[in-house]
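Worked Example 4.2. Consider the chain below.
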Amino acid sequence: MKAKEIGKSVLKWLFILIFILVGLICFSQLMITYMPGLNLGAFFSQNWRIWLIWRSILYMLILVAIFYINKKAKNKVISPKSIVMIITLFLITELLNLMYVN
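Applying the procedure from the previous section yields the following structure tokens:
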């Protein structure tokens, strides 16, 4: 696979991700506007384990995508040190979330 094809593939997936995020933001705004009695804070605090698992799955998908892109590229896109830093940031973020919940 050429670098140009990889770039187009990555841009396509980034566009899809941005489109999904914008859609979720619009949906959230509609929910807040038309359901003002909904207490999302209580919902998230009651279901924090489910959200922890969900975020962990997303982190794993991100890391798999990084490894896949790094493997397909002729020149290494991301150094191993950067990958370790990304994993460390994920772990720190989740530990802070766990401290906040408990």
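The chain has a mean pLDDT of 83. The helical segments are 3-34, 40-46, 48-72, 80-101. Compare this with Example 4.1 before moving on.
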